[in-house]
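FAQ: What does a multi-protein file look like?

Like this. Sequence, then tokens, then the next protein.
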Amino acid sequence: MTILICGSGTMGRGIALASILSGHSAKLYDKQTKALDKAKEFIESQINKGVTKGNYTAEKAEEYKSTCHYIDTLNDQVSDCDIIIEAIIESLEDKEELFQTIENAGIGKDTILATNTSSLSVNVLSKTRTYPESFIGLHFFNPAHLMKLVEIVRTPITEQSILDTAMTYCISLKKVPVIAKDVPGFIVNRVARNYYNEAMRIATEYAASIEQIDSLMKSVGFKMGPFELMDLIGNDVNLEVTKSVYGQYFNDPRFTPSIMQQDYVNAGMFGRKSGNGFYKYDSQS
């Protein structure tokens, strides 16, 4: 399959990497050439690590690299794609603008148009599409090239063939696809709000430190503590998802965003990508 991923940030580059390592051809689109350069550097460094680990040969690595194309325009780039995945910021307006650009570039009815949204309504995003029956949610998790789960969110009019192809694609990436209903936060982000928010509530009440909370959660089987995970995702991204879920549940107190996290975002302490969040990092990633 030929997969077009729109947005070369953390999620987009991870989806592109997973796609090419599974034998697909990928196009990674971003209006910002600097973002594309950073994504290319990341993808190629990850492929090189595979050679170092003995996962494949140097020749195979070069083949993988050649199947990922980096583009800064969508003109003449969508007609040959099997799946187009939107992976930009959690903004309804920005996503709508991107979808309009994709449709104006000549998307066909048989091409799957997917959103990687983690909190916005897939139904709302689909209602103004040219081919809403070919629209679906494909929610990957960070880091997308490593995390196994993908939430597939269909709308009431998504055709069965679209769902089947989406499932086949996810399985080809060695992912575990789970069909979720179109409710705020779907499955994981609805559950995860309490993982993050309760941890920050404990910290702000000085019942335990950030380090203690993370250590305690890892001691009972979690791979990462809540603060480590928020730093990995990005505090700015994580906060926006919480705000979105909170609003869509009509300000249900269970999902109230944390002032603590807002303070970190206001200070530009986004986590790993900024080099400083709940923890400090040696270099930006």
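And here is the next protein:
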Amino acid sequence: MEKLVRGVEAFQQNYLSSYRELFEKFIHGQAPEALFITCSDSRINPNLITQTEPGEMFILRNAGNLIPPFGATSGGEGASIEYAVVALGIKDIIVCGHSHCGAMGGLLYPENLEGMPLVEGWLKHAEATRQIMAQNYQDLEGDPLLMATVEENVLVQLDNLRTYPCVAVRLARGALRIHGWVYEVQTGEVFAYEAEKGQFVPLREASPMPTISRRLARQTSP
């Protein structure tokens, strides 16, 4: 805790003074460029990964970067998405999973969730991911299986995202783009889903997701 307190002091004494004008602008509101939905994992820092400043991204985090389908729950995820799209007028939504994800590990191995009923219940929003893995990836195990689960889960959550009326309307008129990313913790690499290739590719090679349905993330992988 002492480290956090020292960090706050350093922020106020050093960083804040250098960006005083920027923070004064925040009094009048915010205008983020994108909604970034990712995992609560402490190894993920959206602003560090994207090299963005405060105010440039609207960030939503939870275990497993899950997006419950519209109407499935009254939790904060739907409210955050709706606010970002309708009130803030963001033009891009990124759903970013990551390697070595504990939530996806729990989805694959529910015995590891003993004593965590809330986590187990939350992961029901990834039930489609679990079934996709069980029925289409019997040949994988270990780290390859976990990474494939992370990728498929990103695509499932993008499908869930499309169930929100505010998202569907703007996708239909071309006023919104959605992106599926996977961050590799050990290397810092970011991969994005390329619909034309039906797989995740290095970010610089990818284009925005269209509104059409997708194939299995690893179906055409090398």
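Q: Is there any per-entry metadata?
A: Some entries carry free-text notes. For the entry above: Residues 210-214 have pLDDT under 50 and may be disordered.
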